[in-house]
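Task 17 of the worksheet. Students: predict the tertiary structure of the chain below and write it out as structure tokens. Keep your answer in the requested format; marks are given for formatting as well as content.
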Amino acid sequence: MKKPKFCVLGAGNGGLAMAAHLVLKGYEVNLYNRSQPRLNPVIARGGIEVTGQVQGFAPISIVTTNPEEAIKGVDVLMVVVPANGHAFIAQKVAPYLEDGQIILLNPGRTCGAIEFRNVLKEEGCRADVIVAEAQTFIYASRALNPAQVHIYRIKNSIPVAALPNTDTNQALQLIRQAFPEFVKGENVLKTSLDNIGSVFHPTLTILNAARIENERGEFQYYIEGNSPTTSRILEAVDRERLEVAKALKVQAISAVEWLEVAYDATGSNLYEAMQNNQGYYGINAPSTLQTRYLSEDVPMSLVPIASLGEKFGVPVPTIQALIHLASVLHQTDYWAQGRTVEKLGIQDLTADQLHDLVESGGFW
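Model answer:
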């Protein structure tokens, strides 16, 4: 089977980790970022140094802000940017996409593949491509320096689904050559509503707001930033997410179940499972409240879940409270910025019609 060539779009800590790991696995990789300053250290060093579960120096020849140069002739486009950058990436690559290319959102957060497909259509893209999304990001990683990244843990199993679902097997044929951790997901409704970042990130950040500001994030985010009482709020968010999924006829995984699947971490409740997750130790909190755990996870994760809940008559008071508090903290309207059912163009669809959409893709 042909060895795929990759382009990693995004040079944050996740993009650096993925690009370096792919190179060390023996794959040809291009690296794209929209701003030059982020790329300059990688260009100066000639590549990326990675430590932790993966170790080595990964030379990268094409490091560019030019989307055409970045994706020309590649087989798989790995989009590794915050979900509120997905539409931007879709706009940038739309004129240059080639038939047969696979685009994987790492991760899609909630309804990422639907949004990406919509933008490609709006941009007049005629290339026959596959758009897929991962349920979560494969790495627990942090950038140590501009061209150095530490991988704390590679997750065991990452469900992936394409839109439409009939393309999933074809996408995984190539992607699994490099990443056997990616497995077939049920469909993009399932990967979207199994978004566990929506449960953990906004809640822990908001509840630790004073500590983050006062200590500049110098505490273990998932371990010291959590407690048995804090976990009650995490569990309430998780229950509301599961109820929205149920209304959409999706059998979503609970946060406790996900920790076991992704990290082999178990416990009698969510607090215990998180404390027993060795992959979380050493990961500090954000150093500032200007973090993607709010600016990304609220509009791109919590808002679509709440919007779907509103559409299908599922009360989500805890999620709505977190959206409101995040909006107050950042002095912005995250509901206005977020992926509502109206923005996604699915406001008039029943649950059955939504399933038909993600299975057949006839909407496009």
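Marker's comment: The longest strand covers residues 139-145. Residues 244 and 309 are 5 Å apart (CA to CA).
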